[in-house]
Each structure stands twice: as structure tokens, then as C-alpha cells.
Amino acid sequence: MTATAALLAFTLAAAILTITPGLDTALVLRTAAVEGGRRALMAGLGICAGCLLWGAIAAFGLGSLLAVSTLAYDTLRICAAAYLFYLGAKLLWRTLPGRAPAAAAAGKPALQRPIPVSTSATGWFLRGCLTNALNPKVGIFYITFLPQFIPAGADVLTFSLLLATIHALLGVLWFTLLVAATRPLAKWLSRPAVMRGLDRMTGAVFIAFGLKLALEKR
């Protein structure tokens, strides 16, 4: 396989994986709908930064530790599950009645009270990054997936980093399209009842992913 053929094949495969619905897509869509496009884009950039981090780890060979060490894998797995539980529980907590005191003081019914924005754009970047950086499945994916697209004779470190960068750029493009797609629906999505529904759904997804990660066997 030539370098050009390898890059084209990887780009196609990575594009399909990027647009496949999952935790990252749910996080960005929810943030775009509830907290605005800027925070959603920062969350997406954080997710892509996490991919670059795992790509660098795999390129330097450090990620192989996850493939051979059960202790290292399980430690990271439990940390990731706990973090997803935390994010999910926090989203669900925000939807409970009485969580918007200013609106309550104004006499608005519970379902009409807006959900307060409590996380900055930088905070969402960190959340997105940690969502991927703590996920051992992403690490195993990079360790096993990237080498298949490295042509014979190519510099492994340089080519691995190039592939990880392509994957990250595809992610940025996809998340930008997702955020743009929510703009025509911004008025409807900004309704408190809709925002609470999105928070509850996304919180449940995060907790479900956390449970799956905590209970899985290698």
C-alpha cells in the first residue's frame, strides 16, 4: 500500500467512524442545544484533542501498555466510568425542580424555568478532552487501528501522528456541521422543557455508557 492509498483508505474509514452516533455526538448535540454553539464547539475541540493525545501515545508506543496490562486497562476503565457517572448525574441533577432560583423568584412554573449555564467554554473543552482521554477503548482503538494504515517503509511515528491529525480534523468538521444543524432549531431547543428533556436524555446516555464500561470484561 502506498502512502497516498493508505491516507485515502484511513480518511474514508475514519470519516465513517466519526459520523457513527455515540457518546461524542450526544455530548456535542446536547451542548449545542442547551448551552450554545460556542460551548458545543469547544466540547468538540476537546474531544478531538483527546483523540490527538491517544494518537500521540500510540505513536510513541506507550499505549501498548493498555493492550498487555490488565491493571492499567482496568484502572483507566474505572476512572472513565466514574467520570461518565459524574457527568450524567450532574446533567440529571440540573433538571430537578428548584434548580433555577432566579426564575422561581419571578414566579415562573417549574417547567418554564431556564436551566442555568454553569460551565464555561474552557470547561467544556476539558470535559470533551477527558471524555476521550480517560476512555481505554479509544486507546485500544488507536493501538490496533492505526498500524493497519501505515505503509511499509514509512516512519511509524510521523505517519501515526499524521493519521491521528486527520481523524481529529474530521471530528472538528463533523462537530461544526452538527452545531450548524442546531441553529435553525435554536428557538425551539431553547425552551426550558425541551432543554430539560435533552439534559435527562444525555445524562441517561452518559450513565448507561459508564455502566457498560464499568461492567465490561476484557
Jot down its keywords.
218 residues; mainly alpha; 11 helices
Overview of this protein structure:
There is one protein chain. The protein is mainly alpha-helical and 218 residues long. Helix content is 76%, strand content 0%. The protein has helices spanning 3-19, 23-35, 37-59, 64-68, 70-94, 101-105, 121-133, 136-145, 156-182, 186-189, 192-215. Helix 1 runs parallel beside helix 9, helix 3 packs parallel to helix 7 (121-133) and helix 3 (37-59) packs across helix 8 (136-145). The two termini are 32 Å apart. The model is unreliable at 101-116 (pLDDT under 50).
Present the secondary structure layout:
Layout lengths: L2 H17 L3 H13 L1 H23 L4 H5 L1 H25 L6 H5 L15 H13 L2 H10 L10 H27 L3 H4 L2 H24 L3
Helix pairs in contact: 1-9, 2-3, 2-9, 2-11, 3-7, 3-8, 3-9, 5-11
Short description:
This protein is mainly alpha-helical and 218 residues long.
Largest sheet: none
What pattern of helices and strands is seen along the backbone?
Answer: HHHHHHHHHHH
Strand content: under 5%
Total number of helices = 11
Principal-axis shape: globular
Rounded mean pLDDT is 81
> Uncertain regions: pLDDT < 50 for 5+ in a row?
101-116
Between the first and last Cα atoms, what is the distance in angstroms? Answer: 32 Å
Q: Helicity, in percent?
A: over 70%
**What radius of gyration results from the CA coordinates?**
19 Å
Number of strands: 0
**Helix-strand makeup class:** mainly alpha
